[in-house]
Amino acid sequence: MRKIISFMHVSLDGFVAGPNGEMNWIKIDQEIFDHVGKRISKGDTALYGRATYEMMESYWPTAADKPTATKHDIEHAKWYSQVHKVVLSKTMKGADLTNTTIISDDLSESINEIKQSRQGVGEDILLFGSPTATHSLMQLNLIDGYWLFVNPIILGQGIPLFEGIKDKTTLKLLTTRQFTSGVTELNYIVDKQ
């Protein structure tokens, strides 16, 4: 069965965005892009909340066509056009979108069907950003791992990564990596023993 891995940039004090959704504190560069690109290229399914999906749709479908497109823009736009997108949204019900599935209800059952699906040949199903979707999946114990990029900043307030969790969750650290920018990657799997 494939795993749902939450991919997030996070502050040292555990926030994924500022109080008004600000993400201008996130450090990204070519070194991080190259590292992330290697892992996501092995996946064929991406999971988003509605707001993150709309943000992605407003940029990635045409990003590679722009005269100022970077290597990352070209590579990620190609991946984005091919990957199957799953969107968690109560307001997008019935939307007919290319290569996209909308999940509006029966979250637990629908996610487990996607995890067990043999359609995809990819490895992990990556949940990109999407704090609200992440919180919903956390509360249902549907996240199998956390791929975190800890940024060297303390925000003091904002949208927390971990919210609404009632049960203790034990994690096993798989890998860690320090980037030149000061960002540290922590790759955890949920220990379900």
Automatic annotation (TrEMBL):
Protein name as annotated: Dihydrofolate reductase family protein
Organism (species): Imperialibacter roseus
Gene3D superfamilies assigned: Dihydrofolate Reductase, subunit A
Domain of life (superkingdom): Bacteria
One Pfam family of this chain: RibD_C
Signal peptide (from-to): none
Classification lineage: Bacteria, Pseudomonadati, Bacteroidota, Cytophagia, Cytophagales
Start and end residues of each Bacterial bifunctional deaminase-reductase C-terminal domain: 2-183
